[in-house]
Design brief:
This protein is of the alpha/beta class. It has one domain: Alpha/Beta hydrolase fold, catalytic domain (Rossmann fold, 3-Layer(aba) Sandwich), CATH 3.40.50.1820. The protein has ten helices and eight strands. An eight-stranded mixed sheet has the order 1-2-4-3-5-6-7-8, sandwiched between helices. The longest helix has 16 residues. It is globular. The protein starts with a strand and ends in a 10-residue tail after the last helix. The model has no long low-confidence stretch (mean pLDDT 94). It holds the Pfam family Abhydrolase_1. This is Alpha/beta fold hydrolase. Keywords: Hydrolase. One of its GO terms (cellular component) is membrane.
Amino acid sequence: MARFEHAGCRLHYEVHGQGEPLVLLHGLGSSSQDWERQVPVLSRHYQVILMDLRGHGQSAKPRSGYRIATFSDDLLALLQHLGCGPVHVVGLSMGGMVGFQFAVDHPQWLRSLCIVNSAPEVKRRSLEHWLWWAKRWSLARLLSVETVGRGLAARLFPKPEQAALRRSMAQRWARNDKRAYLKSFDAIVGWGVQERIGAIECPTLVIAADHDYTPVQHKQRYVALMPHATLAVIEDSRHATPLDQPEVFNQTLLRFLAAHFPPQGTSRPC
């Protein structure tokens, strides 16, 4: 177990393997543990860096500091602590938002960016958006983290053969600190950097599940705003693609990285 402190918050991180540094950023209410189906594969080729975002997993749960920009600053502090960069960054859901923020704020620290089932903004632009977020906001506060976890697990992993995964994810979700979870949830609503993503110059892969919360067409629209971005759609997948389609996800990511950064026979680990 490794930890470092930034802006008054002790943050948990792990490093696996050797090679070019590749950062994996988890989503809201999740932790670095949920990359368990990626680390063994990716660490054969890269030095995989995991971090529990503040308020999540084994990181501290401070009373303040829950902003996407702060999560991004925490990542920069970790890379400076490790003495490595530029890096490849992969972010799922809220982790993808942190990836977008990091890309526009610290482009010199990026070799590539992979966004998974996420978006460069969460703005309420219509009555439908306001109602949807109001419902989620209310349920998050009224229900226990155990109840929310069971509901999300059932929605994300509905197949009979996913029963073990469903139970595991519900148990992990129940370990969330509710106050930290709600503050992180509030950090998402109203956030956005979409007006800046046209300046992202590094190779970018956007991975979209065919049954994600938001349609593939939404991802197509913002992919078109970035000069070096491509879209990959993974079939028979929901929001947690790295967990429900790990083999396809891993190979999609590895192909993207190999196409843009062919192995050179040398590595640049942290």
